[in-house]
Amino acid sequence: MGKKFTKLSEYKKYKKDKMNVNTVTSKRIRIGMILLIFILLALMGRIGFLQFVQGASLKEMAYKQQTVNRIINPKRGNILDATGKVLATSAQVDTVSINPTKIVGKNADETKVKKESTARALSEIFELNYEETLEKVNSTSSIQTIAKQVEKDKIDKLRTWMKDNKVSVGINIDEDTKRYYPYDNLAAYVIGFCNDENQGIYGVERSYNSYLTGTPR
After folding, report:
1. Fold entry, domain 79-213
2. How confident is the model at residue 147 (pLDDT cuts 50, 70, 90)?
3. Across-strand partners of 12?
4. How far apart are the first and last CA of the chain?
5. I need a labelling partner for 23 at 20 to 30 A (CA). Which of 4, 46, 48, 143 fits?
6. In which region does residue 187 sit, left (phi positive, over 0), alpha (psi from -120 to 50) or beta (all else)?
7. What is the distance between the alpha carbons of residues 153 and 94, in angstroms, rounded to a whole number?
8. Percent of the chain, pLDDT > 90?
9. With bands split at pLDDT 50, 70 and 90, how would you rate the model's confidence at 217?
10. Beta bridge partners of 176
11. From residue 153, how far is each of 48, 58, 157, 172, 215 by CA, in Å?
């Protein structure tokens, strides 16, 4: 049932109050719509600025952070004698490198602590000079080699440290090979030997280097 009025003045006052309430409500709705449109326009302007003005530079920065070129060396071929005995062979080892730009914390202080702890761990595990290792960790380059031809026991220590310290990015462990001679110095002058880059520098290792090296990936 509708509201009953005893006097005409009461009815007029009721109608006036109702109209005022409706007017206030309409104003609030209009203000809300205007604010919403303004926010949407601001967001569209920001998106347009990022896409059309800064798009190229942001894309390049993302590419540099997400991609790193690293050469993976192939396993060097074996050298056999006339009876098929292995005189020189390669066994799997690992090369450890870092991406300094990914060894960061939530702020400058945390980043400093993280880089120092990483440098200390790497220098202790691979028996390196701490200051030189820290210089590599603080580098702005995308890749820094820490240790080559690393044996499994040291790689296991590194993996354990990374797991204990919850490090999942910034340290790379890549498959590599190391040259071994089962008969030690037997016919060493004939067989020859390789340098740290697995390149033959003497004897058969050097003469047939192009055949033994393989193709890097």
Report:
1. Penicillin-binding protein 2a (Domain 2) (3.90.1310)
2. very high
3. none
4. 87
5. 4
6. left
7. 11
8. 26
9. low
10. 93
11. 53, 41, 6, 16, 28
> Which tokens hold the place of 186?
């037997």
Q: Which residues pair with 171 in a beta bridge?
A: 98
> What would the two tokens of residue 174 be?
């890549």
* E strand or H helix that includes residue 180: strand 171-180
pLDDT at 194 over 80: yes
Structural domain boundaries in the chain = 8-65, 79-213
Burial 21-31, CB ≥16 within 10 A → b, else e: eeeeeeeeeee
123: nearest Cα among 135, 111, 112, 113:
135
User: Phi and psi for 178 in degrees, rounded to 5?
Assistant: -130, 140
Q: What's the confidence (pLDDT) of residue 177? A: 80
- Burial of 110 from C-beta contacts in 10 A (0-12 / 13-18 / 19+): exposed
Model confidence band, residue 14 (pLDDT cutoffs 50, 70, 90): low
- DSSP single-letter state for residue 193: -
Query: pTM higher than 0.85, yes or no?
Result: no
